[in-house]
Design a protein that fits this description.
By secondary structure, the chain is an all-alpha fold. The protein is built from three helices and no strands. It has helices spanning 3-9, 38-58, 76-99.
Length: 108
């Protein structure tokens, strides 16, 4: 054996890494509707929180002329709106039982 072969005989020879195949850039997802994209949903929810907070804070500074004493309470319209929204959802659940048709309604 030659000198060179003796030196490299006991050592593992590292191979040069193969060049990685170039990957095509990821295509952006195409959504059928603007609210199919979760980022847009988060933006709308954030915007609604900002609007609600702003109107609640403005309640400190805006003088309202009210017809009933309870309308003058701080945050009355926010609380009233929330309670009425919950009421509408619960009423709709009960109305569904009255209005709902059977599954095979159109098959008959």
């Amino acid at each position: 054996m030659t000198e060179k072969k003796k030196k490299t005989a006991g050592k593992k020879v590292k191979k040069a890494p193969a060049k990685a195949a170039k990957k095509a850039p990821a295509k952006p997802e195409v959504y059928a509707h603007v609210f199919d994209n979760p980022k847009n949903v988060k933006r709308v929810i954030y915007a609604l929180f900002v609007i609600c907070t702003t109107t609640l804070v403005l309640d400190f500074f805006i003088v309202r002329y009210v017809d009933h004493p309870w309308e003058g309470m701080f945050g009355f319209y926010a609380v009233y709106g929330f309670i009425m929204c919950v009421f509408l959802v619960l009423a709709a659940k009960e109305m569904r039982k009255l209005v709902m048709r059977k599954e095979d309604y159109y098959d008959d």
